Amino acid sequence: MKRIIFLLLLSIVVTTHLYSQVEMRGTITTLDNDKPTPVEFANIVLYSASDTTKMIAGTVSDLKGNYLFEYLEIGRYHLVISYLGYKTLSQPMRVVMPSSGDFLKRDFTLEQDTQMLSEVTVEGQLRRQYIDKASYTFTSQDVKSARYSKDLLQNLPELMIDAQSQNIKTLKGASLQILINGVASTDNDLKLLPPDKVLRVEYYDFPPARYAGAGAVANIITRSLNDGYGGGVDLSHAVTTGFGNDNAYFGYNSARNQFSLEYRISYRDYKDRENEDVYRYNLNDEERESFYFRKNKFGYTTHTIGLKYTNQLMDNYIFQVSLRPNFETRFEDGTSAISNTFGNDKTSFKGTNESNTDIISPVADVYYWKALPNKSEISANIVGTMFRTSVEDNAYEYLQPSQEQTLKDEMKLENRKQSIIGEVAYTKKFGLTGWNLGYRLDASWLDSDINNLLGSFNYESRYTEQYLYTELSGMKNKLLYRISLGGKYLTNKSYSNEYNQFVFTPLAMLGYQINNHNTLRLLLQRDSKLPSVSDLSNNAQVITSDIISKGNPLLQNATGTGGGFIYTHNNRFLNLDAAIVYNYTDKAINQYFTHDEENNYIALTKENAIYAQQFGGYVAGQIKPFGTDIFSIRTSAQFVRQQLKSNLVGNIYNWYVPINIYAVFQTQKWMLSYEYRFTSNNLEGAYLVRDENQSNFMARYKYNNRLSFSAGLLWAFTPSHYYRETLPGSLAFNQRDTKIYDNKSMIVLGVSWNFNKGKDYSTKRTMMNEDKDAGTF
Asked: What is the pTM of this model?
C-alpha cells in the first residue's frame, strides 16, 4: 500500500507543471451569391510560427462549417485552411486568452477557386502521431465512397476486414476494442453511424490504462448528430458448406434517450475434417507409438444479443445500461482408426468420440459518466457476468477385429461461475496534459462438478484482482510522453493452493516528433499474466490409453517485463511502423509432458517455467502507389527469437517469422481484396504451433448507400491447415496435422442492407470491462 500511495503522490506532483490553455472555435464559410455558406470537411491546420513544417494541431469542419481546437497554448501560429475547389487560406495568427467567455472565437472565409476539381490532387488521410495513438481524418472522397463509418475505419493502415466474420481486425493480429466517442461499441454500431458524421479516428497501438486488456483501441470521434432511427440486415452464407454469419440491428433516439437492439448468429457445421495424430514415448521401459487417423464432424452456433439504453445530457452526464444474454453451443462427432505399437506388439482399434458443450453467459453492464468543473470528469462502471457451462465428452475404443471395448472415457463438467468487475476513474486535463486516476476490482467465484476417469469431485476457486493506477500523458514541443504507474494485488484460493501477491505494473513511453512525418518512441512496461480457469482445474481427459491431459491447481501467475523502440513514418504514399522489441516473462506458464509414477501414465499439464523471453522486431505498414486509397498493400511481419527455460524441458529456442499481406483495390462502387499469410511455427508451451493459413479473395459491389452485395473465395485452392509438433527434449513426442476440407475454395455470398435517419452517438464512455473466461476445458 505504501508503494501505491507513493505513486499517487508522485503523479500529483508531476501534474502541477501545467500549461496555459485556450479553446478556439469558429465557422468556415464561403460567399455564394453574396450569402455566407458553410464549407464542410475543410482541413484546418495550425503550424508553429517559427517552424512552418511542424504541425501543432489539426481538425476538420463539420456539415455546418464549425470547427474546434481544444487545449491550445497561448502563442503565435501559422494557420492553413484548405479544401477542394477553394483557394488555400494561409496566414499568421495569435492565440490569446479570450476577453470574455470560455473560448476564443475566430471565423474564416474561403474564396472559391475556378480551377477544375479534376485537376486537384487528393492527398488522402491526414495522420498525426501522438505518444500512444495516431489520429486520422478523411477526405470527402473517402466519405462519399463509404456506406457507413465501418468503411472508413477499415481504411486505416493498421486495420483490415476479416474474411470469415466480416468484422474489423488488426493487421498484426492483436485484439481490437472499438469505441464511438469513448463508448464501447460493436460492429453493428459502426453500421448505424453515417460516414459523414465521422470527424476523426484515434487509433491506440498502446491503449491507456483504463482500456487494459485490449491489444489496440480504435476510437471514432463524431460530429453532432440528430435524433432519429437506423437499422439493417446482413446475410452471409457459404454455397456448399455449413458456414454463415447473419445479423440484424436497430437503434432509436429521442431527446436524451437512446435505445438499441442487435442480434447476431454465427454458425459452422463442418462435415469433412481429417486429423493425423502420432505419439511416441517410453513407458515401463518400453518404446511405444500410437497413431490416430480421425474423420469427424464439428461445429458451433454462437448467439450474440445486445440490448442497450442510454440517457444523457451532452457535456453533462451519461447513464447507460446494457444487457447481453449470449449463449453458444458446440459439438463434435467422429470416428478414428488407431494403431498401437508397444514394443514388438502391434494392435488395431476403432475409436468413437462425441462432445457437446453449452455455454450461457448473461451479462449486465451499468455505466455512469459525469462532467465536473475545471475540465475534469469521473466515470464508474460495474459489470456482472454469470456463466453456466455444461460439457459432456465421451470417447470409446474397441479392439479390432473382436470389437472388445478397451477404453471408456466419459467426462461430465458443470461449471457455475459468477464474476463482478467494478471500476471508477477520475480524469483531468491541464492544457496538453491529461491525468487519470482509477481503481478496478475484478472478483470471480467458480464452482465445478466434475465426473471423469479419475472419479467424481467438486472443485471451488475464488479469485480477486485489485488494480490501482494513475497515468500522465501529453506533449511539450516535440517531446511526447506517457507515464502509467499501477499496482495489482492478487488473491487466489482453491482447494489445494492459496496465495496473495502484489505486482507493480508501470508503463513509461517517451517520444520525439522529428517532423510531421517521422516519430520515435521508447516503451517500457511490466504486467502479470494469470492462469485460466481450465489451467487451474483438476479436470482430466484421455488423449491416448497412456496419456491424459489435466490442469494444475498449483499454478501461479507469470510476470512479464518488456520494452521496445518504435519508429513511425507517414506520408501520402507510405505508412510505416518499425520496431525492436524485447520481453522477459518470469514464471512463464508452460505446458509439458510428465510421468505420473503413482498412476503409471504420462500427463500433459502446466507448470511455471523458470522464464521465457523474446527478442526481435516487427515491420507493419501500408503502401499506396498512387497516393490515394484506390489501391494499397498492407503488410505485417514479425522477426522474433523465442526462448523458454524450464527445469523439465531445459532450454528451448525458436525463430518465429509470420508475414501477413493484404491488398485492396477500391472505388466508389467496388472493393476487391486479397489476403495471404506466410505461416511460421510459434512456441506455445510444449509445442511449436504453426499459424493458421490464409488465402482469401473478397469482392463487394455497392449498389447505393443502402445496399451492397459481396462474394468471397476463402482458403483459395487449399484446405484450412493446422499443424503442431512437440519441442525437442519432450518426454513424449507428438505431431498433429489437421485439415478442414469443407473450407477448401469455399465460396461465400452476402447481401447487406441498411437505413438510417440520424443517430446520436455522443456518449463518451471511458472504460470497458468484460469477463470472457467461461471455464471450458
From this structure: 0.79
